[in-house]
Amino acid sequence: MHSFVTEKESQAGTTLEEIRHNWSRQEVEALFALPFNDLLFEAQTMHRRYFDPNQVQVSTLLSIKTGACPEDCAYCPQSTRYDTGLEVEKLMEIEHVLEQARAAVASGATRFCMGAAWRSPKQRDMPQVVAMVKGVRELGLESCMTLGMLTQGQAKELSEAGLDYYNHNLDTSPEFYGDVITTRTYQDRLETLDHVRTSGMKVCSGGIVGMGEQQADRAGLLQQLANLAQHPESVPINMLVRVKGTPLENEEDLDPFEFIRTIAAARIMMPASHVRLSAGREEMNEQMHALAYLAGANSIFYGEKLLTTPNPRANADMALFARLGIEPERRHVEKAPEIPSPHFYDAAAR
Ligand code: SAM
Ligand code: DTB
Ligand code: SF4
């Protein structure tokens, strides 16, 4: 096991194990309080121990069931409680999902994430969802789904179908959570994560910043994630996308450096996990993207749309990768697809 020794710790004769599950709130807050350059240096140092610093994983996202969700998540354009003008769509046909998945392969994505605006999947929808997982895997893509809360039985079904990752976010600190969502508890979320983990799937779990929370809440979110029995393999950090009609539509801008600090702290606390620069990139300029990669973000959602809101165009991401000397990460699993396609490299020509 590696150990990470800061100058202060080495002076004090102590060492800090890197993969930890016992972070105190105070320790996490102390990370956030570091001078910005010290925090970024520490994060980048840690990043290099576990990852190639010039590779970023790219995932494509598809909404397989849109809108009319009964939950009241204050940030979400898909809740039926808010009038966001969103067009509701029922569960997508398998062939349509696979068409999009083939396009994702052609664009160079290695993971295909499917999201549904459900509180939890209905049992009658499971066969269709299972067929989607099988079809996506046959294309050689890693598969990920986010369908809301899962029972242990549903997690087992998805795992047996070959689903690689399940995304379920803790969203924020336990203290701030009730200000954002009232229709399901923090404990419900932890239980779903437990079902996902014990069924053998990889866990994708992160949160949202910029919802009016305090720095202590951002620290609290990361503390919860890092203190899980096993770190999520993937940690999406979303910047709130303010959608008209949601209760958070007029939320104030978060200091961009606070966002970068959150990425850096996540990198230090969960050094072997992919930290995903997730929603909110449409509002971030190239310099901000570069800082996020420097802070240890090594995954993005790639393609023009997230679930319902816009995302930077794929060729803009590839052009920035080329300027920064970043390459898309090749996938780790056995059955690698024939990617990248030639036009993918053209876009990123150096
Ligand atoms: N309905 C399922 C659930 O909530 O578990 C899955 C889909 S839900 C849209 C997935 C995640 O997207 C949420 O947990 C939240 O973190 C993120 N999200 C939703 N709306 C967002 C917004 N406006 N800005 C940033 N992130 C958002
Ligand atoms: C996650 O953490 N972010 C993604 C994914 N998991 C499913 C979703 C972002 C949604 C942003 C708002 C929208 O496009 O509807
Ligand atoms: Fe529904 Fe998920 Fe949106 Fe919450 S985040 S309202 S559960 S779609």
* Mean pLDDT value: 88
Each distinct ligand: S-adenosylmethionine, 6-(5-methyl-2-OXO-imidazolidin-4-yl)-hexanoic acid, iron/sulfur cluster
| Order of helical and strand elements | EHEHHEHEHEHEHHEEHEHEHEHEH
Shape: globular
Helix content: 25-40%
Structural commentary:
The chain is α/β, with parallel strands linked by helices and 350 residues long. 39% of the residues lie in helices and 14% in strands. Strands 3, 4, 5, 6, 7, 8, 9, 10, 11 and 12 form a ten-stranded parallel sheet that branches. It has a two-stranded antiparallel ribbon with strand order 1-2. The longest helix has 15 residues, at 36-50. Residues 1-16 and 333-350 have low confidence and may be disordered. Bound molecules: S-adenosylmethionine, 6-(5-methyl-2-OXO-imidazolidin-4-yl)-hexanoic acid and iron/sulfur cluster (SF4).
Compact overview of the structure:
By secondary structure, the chain is an alpha/beta fold.
Name the features.
ten-stranded parallel sheet; single chain; 39% helix; binds S-adenosylmethionine; disordered C terminus; 13 helices; binds iron/sulfur cluster; alpha/beta; binds 6-(5-methyl-2-OXO-imidazolidin-4-yl)-hexanoic acid
Secondary structure: elements and pairs:
Elements: E1 3-4, H1 7-12, E2 16-17, H2 25-32, H3 36-50, E3 55-65, H4 94-107, E4 111-116, H5 126-138, E5 142-146, H6 152-161, E6 165-167, H7 174-177, H8 186-198, E7 202-204, E8 207-209, H9 215-226, E9 234-239, H10 256-269, E10 274-277, H11 286-294, E11 299-301, H12 314-324, E12 327-328, H13 342-347
Helix pairs in contact: 2-9, 3-10, 4-5, 5-6, 6-8, 9-10, 10-11
The structure holds S-adenosylmethionine, 6-(5-methyl-2-OXO-imidazolidin-4-yl)-hexanoic acid and iron/sulfur cluster.
